[in-house]
Design goal:
Layout (H helix, E strand, L loop, with lengths): L1 E4 L14 H9 L3 E5 L10 H6 L3 E3 L2 H7 L2 E3 L6 H4 L7 E4 L7 H10 L2 E4 L14 H18 L21 E5 L3 H12 L3 E6 L2 H11 L3 E5 L2 H9 L3 E4 L14 H6 L5 E4 L20 E4 L2 E4 L9 H22 L1 H7 L1 H4 L2 E4 L2 E2 L2 H7 L6 H6 L2
Parallel strand pairs: 1-2, 1-4, 2-3, 4-5, 5-6, 7-8, 7-10, 8-9, 10-11, 11-13
Antiparallel strand pairs: 6-14, 12-13, 14-15
Helix pairs in contact: 6-7, 11-12
Amino acid sequence: MHIGVPKEIKVAERRVGLTPAGVRELVGQGHRVTVQASAGAGIGVADAEYVDAGAGIADSPEALWGDAELIVKVKEPQAAERALLREDHILFTYLHLAPDEPQTRELIASGATCIAYETVTDRNGGLPLLAPMSQVAGRMSIQAGAHCLEATNGGAGLLLGGVPGVHSAKTVVIGGGVVGENAIEMAHGLGSAVAVLDRNLDVLDRLSRRFGSALQTVYSTTQAIEELVLDADLVIGAVLVKGATAPKLVTAEMVTNMRAGSVLVDVAIDQGGCFETSKPTTHDAPTYIVDDVVHYCVANMPGGVPRTSTYALTNATLPFTSAIARHGVHDALLQDPHLLGGLNVCAGMVTERNVADAQGLTYVEPAAALAKR
């Protein structure tokens, strides 16, 4: 199979879909790989390194998309990229479709087979292709939040961990999954007082056992969220519902009543955000202020550390990319129900129920859509 790796064009996105090591593996399996010129520049990898790994280099996106069968990316295709999609294309990338109706419409119109990293599952019900970026984003959320708490960035002028004789800042993490656990680890390590909210008692028990009395674990209700958020200096939104729009758990009224200079970091912004006052931002302009509360809502947070993120992502995606290339998309998906869970759009049909429900579209079983491909 011919695999194409484009240069990412989302604002300030420096990651790339495959590392040279990933290319070498795929070429060694007998596949052809083409990488767009300078696609690896953001992670410090020159075109020559891809050539040494066996890849060809395409001078333009049109040349790359025009010839490749399987497109391996990082972020959702932008409008200019969606215009290059054909019905014989297989697109393998993060999509986050639920809150993005324009993208959904154009993927449907393309007829392409679109597999989303974030809805591929594993035997334990986890999301193995989302996990590495969730780890990165969870850790970055605390770095970003601590930076935003500085007075020069609009914050209250607090050091997250305080110093001897001075209280540390209070961090509240909403959601105890992969993002939340990594945020807790970083906040705890910096000396912040940390509380986590979740509705899964098993999750709260696991986190309590790991962090002990240093972590306040709270069952998530509207009242509990309100009480903790209004007393917080830094709030991390780490809520995820697979494939669905994130629930709005922090209301605009709560934000109005927060202390001036408090900070909200919405890691769920890719799925629409879990704060009512959230709107997507970029690494070029990461924050804005509502009611004296700093909002950090960068929709591709791991893109800020592209080298770490790219290598972590390739480690997770490569076995699935290899399976699609080796077996063809039809057989690869039907042989692996976990990979099949990643199919979001196929042959002009929506095959992810949460996306269909969020946008009022007809849901089609993935196997049925594949049969019509």
